[in-house]
Amino acid sequence: xxxxxxxxxxxxxxxxxxxxxxxxxxxxxxxxxxxxxxxxxxxxxxxxxxxxxxxxxxxxxxxxxxxxxxxxxxxxxxxxxxxxxxxxxxxxxxxxxxxxxxxxxxxxxxxxxxxxxxxxxxxxxxxxxxxxxxxxxxxxxxxxxxxxxxxxxxxxxxxxxxxxxxxxxxxxxxxxxxxxxxxxxxxxxxxxxxxxxxxxxxxxxxxxxxxxxxxxxxxxxxxxxxxxxxxxxxxxxxxxxxxxxxxxxxxxxxxxxxxxxxxxxxxxxxxxxxxxxxxxxxxxxxxxxxxxxxxxxxxxxxxxxxxxxxxxxxxxxxxxxxxx
Amino acid sequence: xxxxxxxxxxxxxxxxxxxxxxxxxxxxxxxxxxxxxxxxxxxxxxxxxxxxxxxxxxxxxxxxxxxxxxxxxxxxxxxxxxxxxxxxxxxxxxxxxxxxxxxxxxxxxxx
Amino acid sequence: xxxxxxxxxxxxxxxxxxxxxxxxxxxxxxxxxxxxxxxxxxxxxxxxxxxxxxxxxxxxxxxxxxxxxxxxxxxxxxxxxxxxxxxxxxxxxxxxxxxxxxxxxxxxxxxxxxxxxxxxxxxxxxxxxxxxxxxxxxxxxxxxxxxxxxxxxxxxxxxxxxxxxxxxxxxxxxxxxxxxxxxxxxxxxxxxxxxxxxxxxxxxxxxxxxxxxxxxxxxxxxxxxxxxxxxxxxxxxxxxxxxxxxxxxxxxxxxxxxxxxxxxxxxxxxxxxxxxxxxxxxxxxxxxxxxxxxxxxxxxxxxxxxxxxxxxxxxxxxxxxxxxxxxxxxxxxxxxxxxxxxxxxxxxxxxxxxxxxxxxxxxxxxxxxxxxxxxxxxxxxxxxxxxxxxxxxxxxxxxxxxxxxxxxxxxxxxxxxxxxxxxxxxxxxxxxxxxxxxxxxxxxxxxxxxxxxxxxxxxxxxxxxxxxxxxxxxxxxxxxxxxxxxxxxxxxxxxxxxxxxxxxxxxxxxxxxxxxxxxxxxxxxxxxxxxxxxxxxxxxxxxxxxxxxxxxxxxxxxxxxxxxxxxxxxxxxxxxxxxxxxxxxxxxxxxxxxxxxxxxxxxxxxxxxxxxxxxxxxxxxxxxxxxxxxxxxxxxxxxxxxx
Lengths: 324, 111, 643
What we know:
The structure holds 3 protein chains of 3 kinds. Chain B is an alpha/beta fold. Chain B has a single domain (2-106), classed as Transcription Regulator spoIIAA (2-Layer Sandwich), CATH 3.30.750.24. Chain B has helices at 25-38, 55-71, 82-91, 93-96, 103-110; strands at 2-7, 11-20, 42-53, 75-78, 98-100. In chain C, a hairpin with a 7-residue loop joins strand 5 and strand 6. Chain C is an alpha+beta fold. Chains in contact: A-C, B-C.
C-alpha cells in the first residue's frame, strides 16, 4: 500500500527536480582549500537545495595544492571564489577588480604557535627565532604582528603541514585557529605546552574568508551574485544548526577528494567556524563586511606597502551598483 | 549463726554471732569439740554479737565447758549482755560460768 | 524431633557455608594468580613479538637510510655534474629494490649552487626506472626537504598515500647534503629516497595475536599508519581518536608512544573492549608498533578453567552437604529417640525402654549413661520410699511419745474438788516435736501441796526421755523430802551422775501450806513466776539458782512468800514469752503481765484459756516452736474451807 503510493510520489518529485534543474543557472565556486569544514556552509547550501531555491546550480570545485581559486577566477573557470580580504585588496590594487559579495569570517583566526619548552613566553622571545610563514598575502597579518613588536626573525617558508614545527625545525609556526592549531594538539602536544599568539588579540584584525566575484562578472548579473551570497549564508546557518549532518557531508566530500579526514578535527573546525562566522553582537549582520574591519585591514596593508590605495568601500562591496 | 575463731597466746577466742539454738547448737558443739581435740587450750566465748540463746544452746555451752574442764583448761564468757544475759541470769549460768565484761578481762583472768 | 532436625540443619549449614567460603577464596585466589601469571607471560610474549617485528622493520629502514646517507656523502665529496648525478641516482635506485623513488634536490643558494638547480628524480614503474625531474621550487617548502635541511640530519617524513593510486602508503628518507666551505657547514641539498610501505603494512597486519587481537602502527605524530579499522588509517591520530571518544587516558598513552617510550598497559579500546596493549617505538622513524590483546579472549582459558573448577567444587559441596546432612541425621536420630524416652522417664514412667545401644560412640555412651541413671533413680526412689516409711513410723511413734508424755501430767481439773482453800489449773500445748516442758502437783502431806514447772533443755527424744526421768525423780523425791531446796538438790545429784551430754532442766519447785498460804520454793534456773495479788500482776523476785542436771554440787536455797486469800501464782515456761509472731516479734513478759492483769478476776481455767488465746492470737498462725505450758494456783484461804 505504502510502496504503491510512495513510488509514484518519488517519481513525480524526481521529474519536478529535473525540470527545475533545467531552469537553474549553472555557476561554479572554488573554495580556498581542499574540502574541510571551513567550507561547510557552501556544501550544505548545495546539499540541502538552498542554492537551487535561489535558482542556482552551484558546482563546488576542489581547492588545494596547485589549485588557486584566484587563478581560477581570473581564468574564468569559476564564477565565485572564497578569498581572503587581504588577497582581494592586493589584487584590487594590482588592477584586478573584485567584488566582495559576503564577508564570511569577520576577524583574524591566524595565530603564531610556539612550544613553551623552547623558552618562548611573550612576543619579545620570538626575536631572532625561526618562524614559519605561509607564502604570499597569507603571511601579511603575521608580518604586521612582527612589525608591531619590531621583531626580526628568520623567516622559513611554511607549506601545508606543521611537521617542521613538530620536529623542532622552526620555533614558531603559522597556524589557523580552526585548523593547524588543532592538528598540533592532535599530534600529542597539550594546550598548556603551547605559547599561542592569536593575532586578533594583538590588534591585528584581518577579516579572512569572503565570497568574491570578478567585478565584470558581477556586473553582468548582480542579482545572481547576491542570490549566491544569500544562499551561501543560509547554508552556513543550516550547517551550524545541524552540526552532525554537516560533519557527515564534509567527511564524505573529504573522502571523495582523498584527503585525510579526521572526524574530531572537522568537528573542531566547524565549531571554530561558528565562533568566527556568527556575529559576536546582534548589531552586526552575518556575512556583512564591517567597514571598520575593512579599513583596518586596508591600513595595515597600506602601511606594509602591499597596497597603494584602499579601494572605495561601496565599490568594493558592490553596494555602489545596488544603489543604482 | 557464725563462729569466728581467733588464736591468742593463752586461749582461743570464739566470737559467736546470730542465734545459738537447737538448730545451730550442734554445729557449735562439733566445732569446739574438734578444736579441743586438736589443741587442748582455754576458751573464751565472746557473746557480744550473739542475739539469742536457747536452752539447747545453754546445754551446748555447758557440754563444751565441761569438756574443757576435763582437759584442765579454762572456759570464760565475755560480753554477755542483753537478752542473753537475762537468760544466763534466769538459768543460773551467770553464777557457775566465769563471766567477764570484755575479752581482755577474760584473757587477764586466764593469765 | 524438631530439635534433632535443627541440630542436623545447623550443622549442615555451618559445614556448607564454611566449605563454600573456603572454595570461594581458593578459586578466587587461583583465578587471580592465574591471571597475573598469564598477564606476565603475555607481556613477555608481546614484548618479544613487537621487538622482533621492529627489528625486521629496522633492518630494512636502516639499509635504506644507509643508501641515502652514502649517496649524500659521495655527493659531498665529489662534485657531480648533472649527467653523473642522474646516473648515480639511477644506478643506486636500480640496486636497491626496497626504494621506490630516488632523487636529489638543491638549494637555490648562489653561494654553492646555481640559481636554478636541478632536482633529478627516478622512480620505479614495474621494472622500468622513470626519470621525472621537478623544475619549480616547490620542494623548498616540502617536509621531505625542509625537515632534514632545518634539522641538519636524516629525517623520515610523515607517511602519506601515494599520489597515483591513493592507497599505497609512502614515506621518504631524506639526508642533507652538506657544503663545507671551511668556515661553516651548510645544507646544500637533500638526497631523498621514497619508500613504499606496502611491505610494512603487510608485516604489521601479519602480526596476529590470539583470534581477535590485532596490531597497529602509529606515525611520529600519532597518525594511524596501519589498523584493522581502515577508516582510521591516515585519517585519525591516536589523539583525535581520544578526543572524539572522550578517552583522556588514551591521549596519555599516545603521548608516551610519540615520545618513544614502550610499555604494557590495560585500556578500553575504541570498541569499548577491555584490552591489554604492548607498544614499542621504531627507532629510525619514531613510529610506534603496538599489539592489542582483548582481555576476554586472553583470560578465556583461565576463566573456563576456573568455571570448571568452580563447577566441580559446587558439585562437591552439594555432595558434601548431602553427606553431612545424612550423617547428622544418623547421629541425631538416636538422640531424638533417647530424648523421647527420657521425657517419658521424666514424667515418671521409669520402666520406659531406652533405645537399644547399637554403637560405642557418644550417643551409645549417652544411652548407657541414661540407662545407668534410670536404674540409680529407680533405686533411689525405692530407698526414699523406704526411708519415708521409716520416718513416718518414727513420727507416729514420736506422736505417741508426746501423747504419753502429756498423759503423764495431771490433766483432770478440778484436781482437788474437796480442797476449796485453793484452786489449781494447768495446761500444756506441745510443739510439733516432742518437747521437754512439764508441770506437776501433788500433796506431800495433807497440808503441803507441791507444785512445779520445768523445762528440759532442747527438744526431741533425748529431751523427752530426760523429762520422764526428771518428772519421776521430782515426784518421788518430792514426796520423800518435802522441802523444795532439798528436792532440787537431791534430784540434781541423781541427774548429774553420768551426765556427759550436760542435759539439764530448769525447775521451779514450790510447796504451798494450804493452811496459812505460805509458799516455800526453790528455783533451778526457771523463769520467775507471776504473782497476781489485789488485781496487780508482777514477777516474783526470786533467786536464779542453777539449772538441774549438769553440776552435782549445786546448792539451792529455799525462799518463801505468803499468799493472801485470792492471790494467784502463775507459773509458765518460755514457750509463752518467746512465742513468735509472723514478724518474729516475741510475745514477751510485758504482754504476759498485762494479759494476766486483765484476767486477774477470772477463774483459773478461764485465765489459762485467756493467756493461751492471747499467745496464739499473737502468733497469728506462725509455727509454734516450743511447748506452751502454764500452771496457775490460787489460794482462797482456810475461810473458804469453812464457809
